[in-house]
Each structure stands twice: as C-alpha cells, then as structure tokens.
Q: What sequence folds into this?
C-alpha cells in the first residue's frame, strides 16, 4: 500500500501593523517613548529608544558626559503589544530629556526586532517628525507614487545597498541622464550612526554628503571654473577636512554649482534615482572663522565608508524587508 506523505510548511506569524510617531533630534534619527523592565526594581520604567540602523550604536547613549542619576539594570524593552526586545544595559532611573538619553535597538537584517516584525518602514511626515511602521500591511500606501523601488541588502549586519553618484552641472541639467556604469556602484550604508557632537559648524557629521571619486572630479573642476578654488583638488584633499573657499558665495554663484544625484541598483536589474543633493545643502558655515566651506566626503574601493545619511532618511520612505532581504525606497506622501 502506498502512503501519501505531506510536507508541512510553517510560515512565521508576525504582529499586526503598528505605527509609532517619532520626533527627530540631533542625537538620533527616530526617538520614541518605550517601557523598560528593570529586574532590580521588578517593574517597568519609562524611557526613550531609537532604531539603530548602523550596528555602530550599542546600548545606551546620552549627550551628557556622565549621568548623575541613579542607574539600574534593564533586561527588556517593550515597544508595542507583543514586542519585547532583550536589552542588557544600565540606564538612568530618571530620564532627563535635556540630555537626550536613548536606548538603541538593533534594527539590521539579522536583528531580534526584524525576527519579530518581519519588516518595518520609516517615513517622514514633517521636517521634525516621522513614523515608524512595524509590520506594515501595505508599505506602498505610505509613498506618493504608491510604489516602492527595492534594492537588495548586500550586508546582513548593516543596512547597505549598491549606490552610485552622478554630478549634475548647470550645463547638464537639461540633458537626459544616461545609465551609471556598473563600476560606479559601491556598497553604501543607509546611515552610520550619531552626528559628531564636537562639530562646531551648523551642519553635523550626519548631514555630510558622501560622493564617488568621479563625481568629486567633476565637482572640483566646477569649483575652479567659478573661481571658488585656485586649482582642481585631488581625490585625497577632503579626507583631512573641509574645502575652504577663496571668496564668499553669492546667490547667483550658488545656483550655478552642481547637484549630486544618487542611484541605487534595483533587484530587477534596473537603476533608480532616489535622492538629490542641491548646492545649498552641501555648504556649511564656520562661525568661528567666518568662512564658508564645502562639506563633502569621497568614498572609493580604498575608502569603503559611505552613507546616504540622515538628510536622506528625513526625505525618503525606507522599507526594511527581512523576509525578502531587500530595502525599498519611495517618496513620502507629503513633500519634505
């Protein structure tokens, strides 16, 4: 007698969609209230947490050099009904909001958070506020075009996709962009961590822009053409600091300077433009020296560090999908 064998497939069951309203601040991208369980006190305490997209922020951080308040051990962070993240750090008993105390929750592809929720979505809703959507039932509905464009996540521990940068000069803005060569794409993180708290300029490390060597060369020639530098800058020039300009910028000159367009490789083999940096966004001002300077950094195969950064995240819908190991990008419902 033949016996029919049945193969049982078990699919993971994730929670229903849960939306968290969050505010941006100078310390973290997405900071929101949570409950933390302390075994020392045998009760929950109220605090704040953020999603760590970089794997560089671990544990707990504060803008204060030292916390004078009493600290207690924490074993769990409760985000929403049914979501409890193990957490093994000491935190202050009194969360003084002025020092921006924050418990960082790992949110990469291999994180405990994604094992529980399957996917999450980040979207800005204003200049200062955003939404974290856990287990979104229809991620496309949070985008203006009702469609997310997906790129493969090329690293299990850090949220990285393949990114290329084109320099768009004033002369080429009216031209149709040609596809970017495959050798122009580099691994690039979505975000790498906290801003530099010691930065004395108006823009922090998190607001700096990373571009490719080819984009840098075109940009350098444009600065020389407009009399802002005396000669083209080598690729290594900006690794030790910003580019100081020969003269003060005026509105008419700024409008003639290049923009930078960021492309990602999509899972279907196509390329998509996901982000544009305009000239007014990559200039900063040093109040101490009364000088304007360019805040750009160059990535390459020799210097693999690259990030899209918090400026990108504050304008873009990002869907981190661990089920399909991909990251989706789209325009928010409201133009930021």
A:
């Amino acid at each position: 007698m033949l016996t029919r064998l049945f193969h049982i497939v078990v699919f993971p069951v994730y929670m229903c969609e849960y939306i968290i309203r969050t505010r941006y601040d100078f310390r973290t991208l997405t900071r929101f209230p949570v409950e933390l369980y302390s075994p020392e006190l045998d009760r929950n305490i109220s605090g704040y947490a953020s999603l760590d997209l970089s794997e560089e922020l671990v544990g707990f951080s504060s803008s204060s050099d030292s916390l004078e308040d009493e600290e207690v051990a924490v074993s769990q962070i409760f985000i929403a009904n049914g979501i409890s993240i193990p957490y093994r750090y000491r935190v202050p008993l009194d969360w003084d909001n002025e020092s921006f105390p924050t418990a960082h929750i790992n949110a990469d592809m291999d994180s405990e958070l994604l094992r529980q929720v399957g996917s999450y979505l980040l979207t800005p809703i204003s200049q200062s506020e955003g939404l974290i959507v856990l287990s979104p039932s229809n991620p496309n509905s949070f985008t203006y075009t009702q469609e997310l464009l997906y790129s493969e996540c090329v690293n299990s521990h850090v949220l990285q996709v393949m990114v290329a940068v084109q320099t768009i000069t004033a002369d080429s803005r009216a031209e149709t962009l040609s596809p970017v060569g495959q050798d122009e794409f580099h691994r690039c993180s979505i975000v790498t961590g906290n801003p530099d708290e010691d930065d004395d300029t108006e823009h922090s490390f998190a607001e700096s822009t990373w571009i490719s060597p080819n984009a840098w060369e075109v940009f350098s020639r444009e600065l020389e053409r407009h009399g802002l530098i005396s000669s083209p800058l080598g690729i290594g020039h900006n690794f030790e600091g910003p580019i100081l300009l020969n003269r003060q910028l005026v509105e008419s000159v700024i409008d003639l300077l290049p923009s930078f367009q960021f492309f990602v490789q999509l899972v279907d083999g196509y390329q998509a433009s996901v982000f544009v940096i305009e000239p007014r966004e990559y200039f900063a001002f040093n109040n101490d020296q009364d000088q304007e300077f360019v805040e750009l950094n160059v990535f390459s195969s020799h210097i693999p560090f690259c990030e899209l950064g918090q400026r990108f995240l504050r304008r873009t819908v990002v869907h981190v999908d661990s089920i399909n190991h991909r990251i989706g990008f789209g325009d928010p419902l409201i133009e930021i």
Summary: The first strand starts at residue 18 and ends at 23.
